[in-house]
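Notebook B, p. 112. Complex prediction, attempt 2.
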Amino acid sequence: MSGARSTTAFRPRRLAAVARKEFIHVLRDPRALGIAIVLPMIMLLIFGYALTMDLDRVPLAVWDQSRTPQSRELVSRFEGSRYFSLVARPDSYREVEASLAGGRTMMAVVIPVEFGRRVASGRTTAVQVLADGSDANTTTLALSYAESVVRGYSQEILVERIRRLTGRPPALPLDLRFRSWFNTDMESRIFIVPGLIAVIMMLITALLTSLTVAREWETGTMEQLVSTPLRGTELILGKLVPYFTIGMLDMLLSVLAGRFLFGVPIRGSLVLLFLVSAIYLVGALSLGILISAKAKTQLLASQFAFVATFLPAFLLSGFMFDIRNMPKALQVLTYLIPARYFVAFLRGLYLKGTGLAQLWPECLLMVLFGALMLLAAIHSFRKRLD
Amino acid sequence: MDTIRTLALTRRFGEQVALDQLTLSVAEGEIFGLVGPDGAGKTTTMRLLTGILAPSSGEAWVDGLHVVREAEPIKERIGYMSQRFGLYPDLTVLENLDFYADLYEVPTSGRGARVDRLLAFSNLAPFKRRLAGNLSGGMKQKLGLACALVHTPRVLFLDEPTNGVDPVSRRDFWRILYQLQQERVTIFVSTAYLDEAERCNRIGLLHQGRLLACDTVDGVKGLLEGTLLEVRCDTPRRAAGILRSADLGRVALFGDRIHVLAGDPDRGRTAIEGALRAEGISCHSLAAIEPTLEDVFTSTLPGGDA
């Protein structure tokens, strides 16, 4: 009888049976469909609109003790800047403090009594800027805006003084001509959306697959499955097929939303974009299955999937925080986060239109990640209960 | 050749011995019942024989194949129904059957006829488009059995298949098993119900991982040495206590009946009547009866007088 030999062989039909069954699970479970299709869109909308790192209309308080033409000129420069919005005019340090502490303003400019007199007489004079430093990043940004407003005014006074002395305006020694490439308007959305796609892909796929093997252990169907001739490769690949399809659909939806909702242009090759995404997807899905197979309960698996995929993808991939600004040890750690390569790849492809010529190391590492995870997932499946 | 053969099959979980040196054999076409209370080691035995759990020591063969070295070929020839409902509640009856038919590579040609036969056989035909999760307990078990039979296995392992199933469905279920036996399928079934065990050709009594007895039902009943006397009286609980302290033989209480295992029927009868009369209890009836498996079980179990 040839039966003894035939069981050990790979059977596409058994793989197809598992894939079909998994498709039915997803299609008949509104929660799974929600995670698969609705959640990525919500994340894209929330992060795309809310997670803007651009700063404008910083609420500002000005205490002008000088009340001179010179001080009013400085105040009007703050008012005229799109970065500031004058919301309070306190009359004492107590009021300044109250407005900062209450969160009504983020920054206060205090102009001393002697400001107008000293400026008129050509002496150096101080302007005090108080800022709410709780949010260090925003404050740093706001301070640099304030500094440029004050410096601009200061420079004009200087130019005016020299013109009066020499009869003609001086030529400034350096003239900065600034032009931003790739993201010409310097909108953070254009920078955020590609990275966001990487994070969403990682989270959705791991969340979806993390439940699939654990559920079979929990409900007892796994005991039935391991008593059949089904092989580990057939089971794992069969489970991957439907989630891969959903993942690619999510990818397509995200790319479309990025392009038409957020107006993020794609400068690189679409073929390369989807090809590399497919490879990344296989890795992320396999990681989810690996977690699921090890955890054996759905609750543990989904929690572990969240910690193991979403958090590193969100925090350590360079999506939120620039890797170059991280402590050395964390920087080394980021090399182990596959999302890091996908974020770099997507940004390169989206913003700069770079292809394999520049991005091959990232692509190679993602292929490596995908292959390793897939092998580990298949290997993690034991046809025994112990 | 025996279809199932085990030799000192043992499985430990840490310190605990779940199955201790099990040696038995089951002939082809036989219905063998593994009988024992919860925790006796029935499920462990099932899992060892189906090749999904590795033994700590000992050997076992199913249909001539070794359960460890040839576990995968075994899986092609057996049908297994685990104790928990192992089917997908969000798939219909037909989808579940189809899924298992694919796993066992049942050829698509002729599969329709096979599936129809299984559905008719299990009275599930009217429900074939119903989700498995919406079936009653009895129907779920019959669907489980149908899925385990979809590839016409040579050996069938059923782990407490009628647990929690109503009596009518239970009878249906056994009718199916007898039909399978006609087709020379070997059936290895575990149960905690003693009345169900009486339907098997041969049984093994399992307690705390040990095989206490293994024989035909009558043979096992014959292990009971002495005569079984059944006493009916007004205060059975109190009477059982009195008889126990009188040390007349093993005493077991079954509802309002007291069973006493007496060495000699006549002397036992006199002693029982005397002991009860001394306490002011009169017997309604006192007669020698045929033992049931329950009697055997309660008398073989160490300290197991119910």
